[in-house]
Amino acid sequence: MNENTSDTWSLSSWKNFTALQQPNWPDETAVDIALAELKQLPPLVFAGEIRALKALLGKAVTGEAFLLQGGDCSENFAKVSAPKIREALKVLLQMAITLTYAGGVPVIKVGRIAGQFAKPRSADTETVGDLVLPSYRGDMVNDAAPTGAARTPDPQRMVKGYHMAAATLNLLRAFTRGGFAALHRVQAWNQEFVSQSPMGMTYERMAKQIDEAIRFMETIGISMDTPQINQAQFFTSHEALLLGYEEALTRVDSTTGDWYDCSAHLLWIGERTRQVDGAHVEFLRGVLNPLGVKVGPGHDIDDLRRLIDVLNPANEPGRLTLITRLGVSQIDDVLPPLIRAMKQDGRAIVWSCDPMHANTITTGGGHKTRKFNDILTELRSFFEIHWAEGTIPGGVHFELTGDNVTECTGGARDIGDDDLIINYETSCDPRLNAEQSLELAFQLAEMIRT
Ligand code: PEP
Ligand code: CO
Questions:
Q1: Ligand 1 pocket, 280 CB below 6 A?
Q2: pTM of the model
Q3: Taking the CB of residue 146, how many other CB atoms lie within 10 A of it?
Q4: Which atom of ligand 1 is nearest to the CA of 428?
């Protein structure tokens, strides 16, 4: 049994517990070789950065900051390229500046990026024609192509995933520190395909106002030579699913002697792997990163209480973000009692809304999609419920891309079911495109401002 006392935690204590959603690696020796290789490699992020994020998230508990987390459902090795990374960053920067300027709150920018390569699946196998194949579990495990060879889990993919994450992060660091994210460039973040749309034009107007404000400050002699103007603070996150990989990237911080999972700044536990007595919870309770926990509509409140006691025993603000993904039809019934219980316990929680994962439907044509209006309605309910309960809506969690995809229906261009085939690229869940994302940001800014 899991005693969940800190003296029983070790880097590999999770192995004594049941780990759901792990690949069936065909060759354990090959797994050991891959993990030994990963243990030798440098950390992707640093403890000091992780602590900075946790401190910022502490502010999101009280409403002094707002968490914006977003990116692909599942990143793909084949799409790790400069244009794709730049477009993803652009849309997040656009959303963040919209929330900051129009919403009037500092925004904590966290990408589902540079490591979001492993996916939980509802079934171990998938039937394609006459073939029963292992399910695709993300590029860090196998290949999505529907053949037996492609779907066989290959542990060297974890090593490749590390290198892909490193390359992605390297470019993100260059973009965010090297001038691309400077506030002088707010207009340049507007994607070409967005700029001609009503949403793009609204953004353009806001960008001009920001430009004028900056010019005014320059004119009166305020120095623009500060990181607040010239750089963006950008953090990475992914679902901590493959525990061998996460363990291999977990390191002791030499300045404090504490353990940090240095594969990303923030790790979250998925709806399918958050069992109190499961291996994912056992592993993550021992690292000091800020943690997200996905919470679906079928949760049990007392079970969540036990889970939070384990993950955040000291009730440290910023340690825990509850990412509720309840669905437009259930949020009104399910969120209020959860909020009341947490409030009654006096728990420090960043409340974040994932309006994507419980609003997924499949069209007659077989495409997984989400309706823009369902996403917006769940978000609105999330805000209204928190206002009514006197708690703080502290953040949002989206699946989105900077590209001009047609995966979610609705939005200003009113993408219909029949349009989904035009540019449906996701290897997992449907994402908002850049224009739909920006539209949501303007709607959100109004809610935040209220
Ligand atoms: C996801 O975020 O892609 C995901 C699988 O979410 P959840 O665990 O909430 O289903
Ligand atoms: Co998803």
A1: no
A2: 0.97
A3: 14
A4: 3
